[in-house]
Write a structure and sequence with these properties.
By secondary structure, the protein is α/β, with parallel strands linked by helices. It has helices at 8-20, 69-87, 105-117, 132-139, 177-194, 214-221, 252-263, 301-314, 324-337, 340-356, 358-363, 379-390, 398-408, 425-443, and strands at 39-41, 52-53, 91-95, 120-126, 150-156, 161-162, 197-206, 228-233, 280-283, 285-288, 291-294, 366-368, 370-374, 412-416, 421-424, 455-459, 465-469. It has one domain (39-300, 365-441): TIM Barrel. Helices cover 39% and strands 17% of the residues. The strands form four sheets. It has a ten-stranded mixed β-sheet. It has a three-stranded antiparallel β-sheet with strand order 11-10-12, with no helix packed on it.
Amino acid sequence: MATRPVHPQTEAALARRWSELPAGAQTASQTLGRHAVGCEGTHGVFPKCNLACTPCYHSRDANRVAVSGEHTRTQVSEQMSLLRRIRGPRAHAQLIGGEVTLLPPDDHAATLQIMRDAGREPMSMTHGDFDYDYLEAVALGADGRARLPRLSFAGHFDMLMFGRRGIERPDDEASLHPYRRRFTEMFARLKREHGVRYFLAHNMTVTPRNVDQIADVVQQCHGYGFGMFSFQPAAFVGDDRRWHDEYRDISADAVWAQIELGAGTRLPFRVFQNGDERCNRTAYGFYVGDRWYPILDDRIPVDLRVRDTFFRHLGGVNFSGTPIPLLIIKVARVIARHPSVAMVFAGWTARMIRSVGGWKLLSSKIRPVSFVMHSFMDAEDVAPAWEAMQRGEELTDPRLRATQERLQACSYAMAHPETGELVPACVQHGVLDPGQNVALRKLLPLAPVTSQRIRHDVPVTGGGRAGRDV
């Protein structure tokens, strides 16, 4: 069983996920139900944040909830248990709420371990405005040894975020590059000093104010150490006091064109589809030097045959969460039954060597970097569409019917143990969060605020100090 390519529970979860997809999403490129069950996220744990964003997807009560490590551990444990039961033994899950680094380091690490124990590969979602001492405290136990095999963090950086130390109100995206670099350098130092492996993603909200700066972010930051660049066109969700733009002035195509401009090449996002194309676009590839190469191209028929072979024979294999020696055995078992798999991928390897150049591959560092765009939906559409779905009703209004289709194909779910239900992220943020945060205010009230204000000086990248009131 340990070396079986696909765990029976994974096989059952994939089949169930495929059956849940609307017909329009059951395509040859679809990963859900064939390679993955989708991503997962936590909710109702620590909605508070110490930065202000325009827009902000959290409801106006989010910052009136105290951060509790005990509450977080308990809720995450229950949510992960339900996810494991419904979606199988392996998946990627985000530890997300408000700002994850407001959790005490020991609670943060303990929660990540809870997620790992449930078979999840956890990723901590942060604004990145924390210090190396905190990162080290999360990574290392009291004995000074690494307590987690790997850390995954997603740092959110954009000029729409206010309150970051040293740059309270960024003038543009370029002014945040030193802070992006500082974020990645902390993890490089952690690996250098303590051997802790890591994966980093870069998140960025996109509005008409910064859409034309995407290309520069990719061009300047692709070598910093991020393994993924994710861009989210803003939607009307959360605290309406922070809606200051006509967000629908930009299209998904316009955002993707900017990402391609930054990458310096076409990004073939139709090789693999994650859920609904109206929600997600993803291009997988790698840099050799300053040039990005796709692992597969959707315009090349032989590449699509490689994809189809992968789905048919290797789709259910867990590549990211399996130790290398065990993974080799799993793949060997597949090849033993289907020798043609080895020939297909040998051909792909030869073509890739010719495309990139053998000498370049030998003499340059290969850096896997994926590009992603997530388009969330407005709360005013999600609410009626979800309510109708709960009644088993298919709406006829074209916009709301499209919303229902996207919710059915959602690749990002959150667990509700109290009902045994998995909820799409757009429903969680657009429909459920406001009431949930009102309840959390009563469960986790903030400590009374005193009139005393203490001003701390904190170091800033590039010299100087900036004050922060607390």
